[in-house]
Each structure stands twice: as C-alpha cells, then as structure tokens.
Amino acid sequence: MRNKEGLVDDLITSIPGEWKFDEQVSQHFDTHVRKSVPLYEEVQKAVIEISEWFIRDNSVVYDLGSSTGETISLLLQKHSRKKNVRFIGVEESLPMIEIARKKCSSELVQFLQQHIEEINEFANIDLVLSLYTLQFLPLWKRKKVLQRIYNGLVEGGAFIFVEKIRAENSLFEDIWNDLYWDFKQENGLNEQQVIKKAQSLRGVLIPLSLTENLSLLSDVGFQCMDTFIKWHNFAGIIAVKMPSKNDIEENTYLNTDKNNKIQQ
Ligand SMILES: C[S@@+](CC[C@H](N)C(=O)[O-])C[C@H]1O[C@@H](n2cnc3c(N)ncnc32)[C@H](O)[C@@H]1O
C-alpha cells in the first residue's frame, strides 16, 4: 500500500509525502479547509477584528500563503471605508491565485505568484498575515522569512500567524492528535481519508511547538507577542514590532533638546 495515491477527501487525492496545492486541491480548497482545520472561520473572524488596530488609510497589508483569497476578501469588506489600503497576497500556486482574483476583484488587491522566501525585502508594512502557511516552509527558511517580515514592518506594525503546532509534552501530543482526528471525522472525513491526509503531509507540514514559534519571533527582534487563539494542536500568534531601543534613546534626546529650547 506504500506510496499509493489515495483519497484525502471525497474529491481530492494525494500520495504519501507529496501534498500539493495544485489545481485539484485549489478547486475544493474552501470546503476541504473547513473540514480539516478546526475553528477555521472563527480564526478568520478574529484576524479581521484584530486588523482594525493596525490598518488605517494608506496601509500596506501582506497575506503570505493567500490561497483562494478568503482572508483578503474579508479584509477588503472590513476596511472598505478607509482610503487607499493596499492588500498583497503572496501565493506559489497559480490555480489558487486564479480563484482568489475572482473572489477579490479590486484595484487595491494584488496577488503575486511567488515563493514567500523569495521576497527579499518588505518595506513600510503595517500588517503581515500568514495563516496556516509558514508550517510548509523548511525550518532553515522560516527564520529568514521571519527576519524579513520583522525588518519590513513599521514600528507598531503587526505580524499575525496561525499554525498547526506540536504539544510541549508528548502526553498532550497524543491527546491533541486523537482529538484532531475525531474533529475531522465529525466533519465527514472517513478514517481512510484522515490517514491518507496525514501520510501525504509527511515531511511537507513541519509544525513547531508554541514555545519554539515564540522563540523564533523573539530571535528576529519581536518583543511583544501573545497567543490570540488556541485549539489543542493549533495556535494563532500576534507579534508587534516595538520601537527599537536606539530610537527610544534618540526620541528622549530630541525631547530633552526640545525641553532645553523651551526653558531657554
Ligand atoms: C493552508 S493554505 C493557506 C490558507 C489560507 N491562508 C487561508 O487562511 O485560507 C497554504 C497556502 O500557502 C501556499 N504556500 C505554501 N508554501 C508556500 C511558499 N513557500 N510560498 C508561497 N506560497 C506557499 C500554498 O500554495 C497554499 O495555498
């Protein structure tokens, strides 16, 4: 049975270790993701709500791994009254982008068919999102991408990402996995499909624990982070770029200078 193609959902097939977001997956992605990712809609809703704190007129927003454009279409609606907010979806799969372009037809939205790790520089960004996507990057690329995100954010800008995670302890790893498989079956996937999907993701989806994700963020410079959602082996994290110490010192100096002038 090894290396045999099998159904991972009623209309999606895959081979062990070869999960891909190809034409077939893209066509059925919006239904498949709701069957296989817990709290998918609640997470979208939470991210859209949090975005209010970071998006204003003229903001630039990136969605890394934008798939069928679900998040960007919700952001477009939410911020429609603001002026000139630009949304950039980065996505390697062309079939995904074709669906996303139909869902989000607005001159404010741009979808780039590109590998996230090939974006060498982000600049002056207010908000970067990456939902269920960094987990697909090999570990050695993940930190580089996070560093570029941190460098490209304006001070006060945020990075929000959601990932499948490993438990901190093997006891919980067992419980979370069993509950996750129950969740999938309660949503209509059968046992064979659940096993086939797990096989197809081998070596493709590489989760880190919550602590490992937080320490990667801290390694690249983020000092202000929190978890905004957690369901067993899934977590949503927000990290905000704070002004650097040098900038604070510079501001203090400027303020002191200003104060001196006022006193003179
Ligand atoms: C699970 S889906 C993301 C779901 C989407 N963010 C949402 O909330 O509906 C992962 C997406 O990331 C894309 N992707 C994976 N690795 C990528 C990479 N290195 N560069 C660009 N896109 C990537 C896949 O093609 C896929 O569409």
Automatic annotation (TrEMBL):
Keyword Amino-acid biosynthesis: no
Single GO molecular function: methyltransferase activity
Residues reported in the UniProt entry to bind S-adenosyl-L-methionine: 40, 65-67
Cited SUPFAM superfamilies: S-adenosyl-L-methionine-dependent methyltransferases
One of the GO BP terms on file: tRNA wobble uridine modification
Classification via InterPro entries: CmoA (IPR005271), Methyltransf_25 (IPR041698), SAM-dependent_MTases_sf (IPR029063)
Stretches assigned to the Methyltransferase domain: 61-157
Family annotation (Pfam families): Methyltransf_25
Record's keyword annotation contains Methyltransferase: yes
Top-level taxon in the UniProt lineage: Bacteria
Keywords from the named record: Methyltransferase, S-adenosyl-L-methionine, Transferase
Protein name as annotated: tRNA (Cmo5U34)-methyltransferase
Species of the source: Phocaeicola massiliensis B84634 = Timone 84634 = DSM 17679 = JCM 13223
